[in-house]
Write a structure and sequence with these properties.
It is a single chain. The chain is globular. Helix 6 links the parallel strand 5 and strand 6. Helices cover about 35% and strands about 25% of the residues. With about 350 residues, the chain is α/β, with parallel strands linked by helices. It starts with a helix and ends with a helix.
């Protein structure tokens, strides 16, 4: 097979941004899936350019998104791992350049921008999806499995937390960004918690919201608490806090037949950040001592956590893009890994919370 034929069989991909998002959440998984070829990595930072070249010598590095769009004819897919305020203009430019697009969370900084992108992708016949990767956290998959088996009876309350001790803002853009520019913990950790709650229990409205700014260098909230009332009858309590010296349960799910409590955080991100590969045999496996507790007080059993599976996002996306259609002919469209309409729904919840608070 010639190189050009091999290229036609892969999804030629560019990653824009090589901070935590591009370096940990996107490039390793694209490089690990044979249906993709990582062609281009865009970053303006000299140190990150060097890291990208060392980690992925098969890809060429360019300074910015404009350079990526300049070679759009040589690409199929662009992944945007850039700050939130850039998501709308870069996704719009990518779609108009004829590319399929993955946008990191948050999808945009307003639901209006998100809806515009959804409509544009539909008008142009392009694939558009949003990287809500924590749908494939092992602990979240465990909760999904419990609900599917009705192991907790009728669920009444869902508690979910992302809490960290970060008294100093980790990135310059995060320190300076206002909520209108995509700053704040609601856009950061909150998008994950809201998306998971909506996936588990369906549509909801915000009935209570607390948004506070604790760190002196922050321009947006870093401590937030939301109460959602789902149409299904479940109440979700969502806590996100970057000034938390003692962390609570990651999940607590209560139902008429029992409960499930889980501590700790999914291990996939730190594993990749430490230099591991998605192809390693133990990738996504949580240490047994972090097993959750299932049952009721006095009658608790340890429940091993399902294996995390961030690779599933790009596997499902490859099925949707289907590069083999060039040779095999048209086929019915496969589902998206994440519907962009779902991501708009998350933004609407964030807007409700801001208005209420």
């Amino acid at each position: 097979m010639s190189q050009s034929e091999a290229s036609r069989r892969t999804i030629r991909t560019a990653v824009v941004g090589y901070g935590l998002s591009g370096r940990v959440f996107h490039a390793p998984f694209i490089a690990a899936d044979p249906r993709y070829s990582l062609e281009v990595i865009a970053t303006s930072d000299a140190g990150r350019q060097a890291a990208a070249a060392a980690h992925h010598p098969e890809a060429r590095t360019v300074p910015d998104a404009a350079a990526v769009f300049g070679v759009a004819a040589e690409l199929d897919l662009v992944v945007l791992g850039t700050p939130p305020a850039t998501h709308y203009p870069l996704a719009k430019a990518a779609l108009e350049a004829g590319l399929d697009v993955v946008v990191d969370k948050p999808f945009a900084v307003s639901s209006g921008e998100g809806r515009e992108l959804v409509q544009l992708a539909e008008d142009l016949g392009r694939v558009l999806t949003v990287f809500h990767n924590r749908r494939w956290d092992g602990d979240f998959l465990t909760v999904q499995k419990l609900l599917a088996a009705e192991a907790l009876g009728t669920v009444t309350r869902f508690e979910s937390r992302f809490e960290r001790w970060q008294p100093v803002t980790s990135k310059a853009w995060k320190a300076s960004a206002t909520p209108g520019e995509g700053g704040g913990v609601l856009f950061d950790l909150g998008t994950h918690l809201i998306d998971q709650a909506l996936q588990l229990f369906g549509p909801a409205r915000v009935v209570h919201a607390e948004l506070e700014t604790r760190r002196p260098d922050a321009r947006a909230e870093d401590d937030a608490f939301l109460v959602l009332r789902h149409d299904s009858g479940v109440t979700s309590h969502l806590t996100m806090n970057l000034m938390c010296a003692q962390q609570g349960h990651r999940f607590r799910v209560l139902g008429s037949g029992g409960g499930y409590t889980k501590n700790g955080v999914d291990p996939q991100e730190p594993y990749i950040a430490a230099g591991g590969s998605p192809l390693d045999p133990d990738f996504g496996r949580e240490a047994p001592e972090w097993a959750g507790q299932l049952g009721r007080d006095g009658h608790l059993d340890a429940l091993p956590t399902e294996r995390g599976a961030y690779s599933e996002f790009y596997r499902i996306l490859a099925d949707r893009i289907r590069p083999d259609k060039i040779l095999a002919g048209p086929a019915p469209a496969a589902p998206l890994p994440v519907s962009p309409e779902d991501a708009v729904g998350v933004l609407e919840i964030i807007e409700e919370a801001r208005a209420l608070a």
